Amino acid sequence: MVTIAPDITSKPGSANNSSDVLRLGRPFRYIVLTLVGLFFIVPIVSSARFSFLGNHNSFTISAYTQLFGTAQFWSTLFLSAKVGVGTVFLTLLLLIPTVVWVHVRLPKLRRVFEAASLLPLVVPSVVVTLGVITSFRGLPNIIYGTPVILSLEYVVLALPFSYRALDSAVQSIDLKTLVEAGQSLGSGWIKLLRYVLLPNLRGGIIGASILTFAFCLGEFAVASLLSFTTFPVFLVQVGQLAASQAVALSLLALLFTWIPLAVITIVFSQRRAKRSTPVLDDLEIS
Amino acid sequence: MTLNDELLDRSPSPAGDGTSVPEPAGRILRGRRRGWKNVAGTLPFIAYLGVFLAVPAVSVIATAFQDGKGNLTLSNFNEAIHGVYLKSFIASIQLSFVAALVAVVVGLLAALAVSSTSNKIVRSLVTAGSGVFANTGGVPLAFSFVATVGNFGIVTKLLQSAGFDLYSHGFSLYSVTGLAIVYQYFLIPLMILIMLPPIQALRKEWVDASESLGASRSQFWRWIGIPLLAPPIFAAFIVLFTDAFAAYATAQALTSGTIPLVPIQLGALISGNVLAGQTNLGDALGAGMILIVVIAGLIYATIQRRTSKWLR
Amino acid sequence: MKTKTNTQGGRYGRSGLPVEFDGIARNFKDVAALKSFNLHADPGELIVLLGPSGCGKTTALRVLAGLEMPDSGRVTIGNHDVTSLPAAKRNIGMVFQSYSLFPNMTARENVEFGLRVRGQKQSDRTARSNELLELIGLKDQADRYPHQLSGGQQQRVALARALAIKPEVLVLDEPLSALDAKVRSSLRDEIRRIQLELGITTFFVTHDQEEALAIADRIAVMHQGQLEQLDTPLAVYTNPATEFVAEFVGTVNRLPGKVINSNTVEVATVGPINYAYDGAFPSGSQVEVLVRPESIGVRDGGDDTCRVLAKSFLGSTIKLTLLDKSDRLIIVAIPTSEAALVANSETVSLYSRGDALLVKDGAR
Ligand SMILES: Nc1ncnc2c1ncn2[C@@H]1O[C@H](COP(=O)(O)OP(=O)(O)OP(=O)(O)O)[C@@H](O)[C@H]1O
Ligand SMILES: [Mg+2]
């Protein structure tokens, strides 16, 4: 039933890497992709329809106008954004030096650090929250009692995404040569960071920032269990009162996280494609 | 210490024959000293993980073994594996297992289908879509399913007007089954993302070689295709399982905390909605969750070592 | 012209089968990879397919192996028309450029794969894989996985795997091109030794002319999906059938000339050169003459002199890059024994010391 053909990810130069990887029957392909595609599109379309649904199937935008008129909508959104910005800032401050250091000084431990960045997956965020409550209860209110604690924890919880984004960005440039070239020209670490590393890592930094920020806007467990009314927590409260408003809000939230995510995914895959243009050009023949 | 040992362990050995040349003692000593300095720049990162991940995790585990006065006890666990808590552990594991299994199958089929088109638009659409949807989840996802197949969802009503009542046929979005379906929304894309690279790494030459050696298509899959894809599939399953197991927001938003799943029960204990008999029961539940994730990881490591010995 | 055949068979008591491509055409969308491609291989001979990239060498081999179906034409092995036989039934051993070993199997398991799918007993398989691993000299590495083997070792295993099924035809598509020069020439000789030993009809694709000249019984020069010439290495080199072959195999100088009589042509700067006359050109016609570098000799002095632009020492020969009075580049190869001739000279004059390769119409 299934046939395999060549690898598109392979390096350019190996000769016969055109045509498909698996020659599954056309019907199979269409059926699978259509069904899966429907599964992902129907909820979005339904949400849109639902959010505009007035009494007796009429069309109304009242769900949206009411939301935008709610003070809490703006204040929770603002809180989430604040937490997000703080988290992004902390993440970059912590990770850029680490990733760069690992690549330059500990290249052999790269995998180890990558694995460490996945550790947050081992501890479910509900458990992290409980741990935060039990262990940080005694800390001064300024940390524990304010949303600062959210940012501090979100840095950890978003690590699997943010670390990978930065790591692969660093991987794709010849960091060691850049650093050595910079050093041989007599620039110190600060200047090196400012003029050599940051410009070259811009893509990875933007990617990590967007992923982290999106994570912060959507995070619910820690925020709600620590009793901070962030945007998602507000969303659940709305949901208990007015379903169509909650759906409208969800749709907005989804779109607002998807758009930047889509942009970085596309930008990243295009960059990857550009690097291997010869192969892809070959592919066009088939 | 361990980092440093690792560093020394992997000191260059002549490639190929696998024998390593003994190094003169002086070099090792120098290497060790330099090793410490090399690790220095990563200390902030390690310290941060320690404070904000390890400390909470360890404190949960430690507290789980204490009673309200700080004495050692196992009674928290005793409670955690009885009654509603046992049920929720079982339900959570069942839910994650089934949800992960379905997503593995569907995601694998989708990844195969995508890899077999030469249509570049479809490819990049699915890749971008997967990257986006895999990061979806949480509350908005719950509500968009409410709008779709909830009590008054658009699809529910459409089906009703077509003469089919979902909810009178045993379906409920607000159940474990409903959750398993909702979870597919982020599990399937995750599976696709994980599987695309290994599928695309299957080489044309292997098919051609096996064919010219007399193998049929199914023999190719039996001896080469499946053995090569099995390890990433197992890995993906474990990742999906833990992802589903730890998920809190979607279930909470969808069921308002009424469904017996471990994260939900634990959340209820934390927010004090439930009168617990024991102060540190929550910590026992948390420790149990960590334990299950770790077990999943160990199973994965074992299987991986068995199935991919050709990788080392 | 003459074909060297090898029908006596190898150590294993088998002799190769003749192979015939008969008017094969294969199109990929708008690319004609092969068009009316004809080639006949004698039993047990090693044919090297040579040609520029994209000329259809791989496609020809894949058609032979059954991995590609021709749009028209016939492939025969022995006396059997195998055109519509699936690859799995053709019993053809294939070696690819690289990465073709199954990564999840050890060297031994790779070698035994073809026998395993044929349902052979483990003991028979082990015996056969031992025999082959010995043949390629990798008995000690039998239990290594491909990534634990060097590139050259991997290609040996690939060869053993292809041979394990006692193939009727062996097909090697640039088997050495991913290896470094030294491994390459030793493995090339080893392949040739084994091929002679087994007496198996073999097709071998390479981009490396030296490799082609060294290993082939006959060379098939391909151009744009067609066979340009099929002949012994010597004949292809010294007696190219077409201008393309002359240009593609070895180096040639193109010089204007004037036909003097039925076997002499007067060539600019070089002087009179002999050529095999086929009656095409009347005396006095302006022609273009293709001359090999080694068919030109140099001497000191003279009036029609060339400037020496570069000398490169190639071991047994010295290659001179010269510029004649009309600013034409001429490449000359002289034996190292004549090094003294050009030791100090800035200018040399030329004479012919061999025949012209080809004479064609239309000098400028
Ligand atoms: N599967 C395919 N799909 C589309 N075009 C193909 C395919 N295989 C080969 N071609 C085209 O057919 C022509 C001949 O290809 P082939 O691989 O036979 O060349 P080759 O002589 O082996 O070249 P090289 O020396 O580079 O390996 C080329 O133009 C190539 O682009
Ligand atoms: Mg080729």
From TrEMBL, chain A:
GO biological process: transmembrane transport
GO cellular component, one term: plasma membrane
Chief localisation class: membrane
Keywords: Cell inner membrane, Cell membrane, Membrane, Transmembrane, Transmembrane helix, Transport
UniProt xrefs under SUPFAM superfamilies: MetI-like (SSF161098)
Family annotation (InterPro entries): MetI-like, MetI-like_sf
Domain named ABC transmembrane type-1: residues: 77-267
Membrane topology: Multi-pass membrane protein
Residues passing through the membrane, by range: 30-52, 83-104, 116-136, 142-163, 204-226, 246-268
Top-level taxon: Bacteria
Subcellular location(s) per record: Cell inner membrane
Protein name: Thiamine transporter membrane protein
The organism of origin for this protein: Acidithrix ferrooxidans
UniProtKB/TrEMBL annotation, chain B:
Domain ABC transmembrane type-1: 89-302
Nucleotidyltransferase as UniProt keyword: no
Domain of life: Bacteria
Entry's transmembrane regions: 39-65, 85-113, 125-154, 174-199, 220-241, 284-303
CDD domains per the UniProt record, alphabetical: TM_PBP2 (cd06261)
Cellular component, GO annotation: plasma membrane
Keywords annotated in UniProt: Cell membrane, Membrane, Transmembrane, Transmembrane helix, Transport
PANTHER family: INNER MEMBRANE ABC TRANSPORTER PERMEASE PROTEIN YDCU-RELATED, INNER MEMBRANE ABC TRANSPORTER PERMEASE PROTEIN YDCU-RELATED-RELATED
The protein, known as: Spermidine/putrescine ABC transporter membrane protein
Organism for this UniProt entry: Acidithrix ferrooxidans
Organism taxonomic ancestry: Bacteria, Bacillati, Actinomycetota, Acidimicrobiia, Acidimicrobiales
TrEMBL record, chain C:
Domain of life: Bacteria
Keywords associated with the record: ATP-binding, Hydrolase, Nucleotide-binding, Transport
Top EC class of this enzyme: translocase
InterPro entries: AAA+_ATPase, ABC_SmlMolc_Importer, ABC_transporter-like_ATP-bd, ABC_transporter-like_CS, Mo/tungstate-bd_C_term_dom, P-loop_NTPase
Enzyme Commission code(s) on record: 7.6.2.9
Any coiled-coil regions, as ranges: none
Gene Ontology molecular function terms on file: ABC-type quaternary ammonium compound transporting activity; ATP binding; ATP hydrolysis activity
Pfam families hit by this protein: ABC_tran (PF00005)
Ranges of residues in domain ABC transporter: 19-249
Keyword flag Hydrolase: yes
Name of the protein described by the UniProt record: ABC-type quaternary amine transporter
Organism: Acidithrix ferrooxidans
Species lineage: Bacteria, Bacillati, Actinomycetota, Acidimicrobiia, Acidimicrobiales
